[in-house]
Design a protein that fits this description.
Layout: H1 4-17, H2 19-23, E1 31-36, E2 38-39, E3 56-57, H3 59-71, E4 75-76, H4 79-88, E5 95-102, H5 105-117, E6 122-126, H6 128-132, H7 138-148, E7 151-156, E8 159-164, H8 168-183, H9 187-200, H10 205-212, H11 216-223, E9 228-232, H12 245-263, E10 269-271, H13 282-290, E11 295-301, E12 315-319, H14 327-333, H15 337-342
Parallel strand pairs: 1-5, 1-12, 2-3, 4-5, 5-6, 6-9, 10-11, 11-12
Antiparallel strand pairs: 7-8
Helix pairs in contact: 1-14, 3-5, 7-8, 7-9, 12-13
Length: about 350
């Protein structure tokens, strides 16, 4: 998608021109699957160096989005019912599904009350290593290490960097220097790298994981909510496409096995970690089908159309981003037009 400032301007143009109302019934398709990660007071609204705030929203914003989609005539449904509707192909009213990735404690503490208040089904895709407290949340570790340090050093791809990080601008520059090279490392090398980096800069990655994620008992409490569906999200949050096929399949299946053992119910649905085109592709969609998962969601951007009935393991989502916490932006995105333009007028993007 375009950069945030350009995207906001484009969405505002659609909204204030009245285009959203004109397009509401022509390009919206069958419905939308919303994607969240963190939900907590003030989420995504912080100032300064907060590179991961795109993953955070305030509970009030989530509440407002639910109110809005209901006012637009959407049915609030579970992922199971959404799959049934997609398979059927048509329905009188569009649906809205709310999903949360990873298994953060704030999903239980702050998001669940919002969903319960609106009698709104929701799905939490769980990375089992996070619930064990052993998964390296490398993107958070990198952020916190830079945030708390006046200088960071690292060796990456044969290059040594020594970066002053005293000011917000310096911290942002350090993030830009390190994030994508770390993101695209071999998945096991990536985790070794971030452990060494965080240790060198005084950060305990396992403690960070334990403080961020639910415990198994907390997850059991959440899973007991009749509105909640638990889905799988691998064991270690590796990008599936960056693993050999056997390991990628094992990550998917082992997470489902562990959730079955701990919760007494086998998950039918899956979310690919990261979920973009570089992290999950056609091979991985086939693996998810092999596990088998009834559906699997990506982070590819788009709404749900009848043609997705043939691609239930490659469903797109609409991200509720900390940088777009205004319902008018979401209303414009729900027209589907921005996604159609981004996907070159293709309603289904599975290549």
């Amino acid at each position: 998608m375009p950069n945030t400032a350009f995207l906001k301007t484009s969405l505002d143009l659609m909204y204030y021109s009245g285009a959203t109302a004109l397009l509401q019934r022509t390009t919206t398709g069958l419905g939308a699957i919303f994607m969240l990660h963190h939900v907590f007071p003030g989420g995504g609204q912080q100032e300064g160096f907060v590179p991961n705030r795109v993953l955070e929203v305030d509970p009030g914003f989530l509440d407002a989005v639910i109110v809005m989609v209901k006012s637009l005539g959407y049915d609030l449904v579970s992922i199971d019912e959404a799959v049934e509707r997609v398979t059927a192909g048509e329905h009188d009213k569009p649906f809205a599904v709310f999903t949360l990735d990873d298994g953060y404690r704030d999903n239980l503490v702050h998001a669940r009350p919002v969903f319960d208040r609106h009698d709104c089904p929701f799905t939490v895709y769980v990375t089992t290593g996070m619930i064990d407290g052993t998964c390296e949340l490398w993107w958070r570790g990198l952020e916190i290490a830079i945030a708390q340090s006046p200088r960071v050093t690292a060796s990456l791809a044969g290059r040594h960097v020594d970066l002053e990080t005293r000011t917000v601008d310096q911290k942002r520059a350090a993030w830009e220097t390190l994030y994508w090279p770390v993101r695209t490392l071999d998945q096991h090398e990536q985790r070794d790298w971030i452990r060494a980096f965080c240790t060198r800069h005084g950060l305990d990655l396992d403690r960070l994981c334990r403080e961020s994620a639910m415990t198994w008992d907390e997850l059991r409490t959440l899973a007991a909510d009749p509105l909640c569906t638990i889905g799988a999200h691998t064991v270690r949050h590796f990008a599936s496409a960056r693993l050999p096929p056997g390991e990628a399949l094992s990550e998917m299946a082992a997470s489902a096995d562990r959730l079955t053992h701990e919760l007494g119910r086998r998950p039918r649905h899956f979310a690919y970690p990261y979920g973009d085109e570089l992290s999950a592709g056609p091979r991985d969609f086939d693996l998810a089908r092999e596990v088998p998962f009834t559906s699997a969601v990506t982070t590819r951007k788009g709404l749900i159309y009848p043609a997705h009935a043939d691609h239930l393991q490659a469903l797109p989502r609409l991200s509720l981003s900390g940088q777009l916490q205004e319902t008018r932006y979401i209303k414009s995105l729900l027209t589907g037009l921005p996604f159609l333009l981004f996907n070159r007028l293709h309603r289904v993007n599975v290549s």
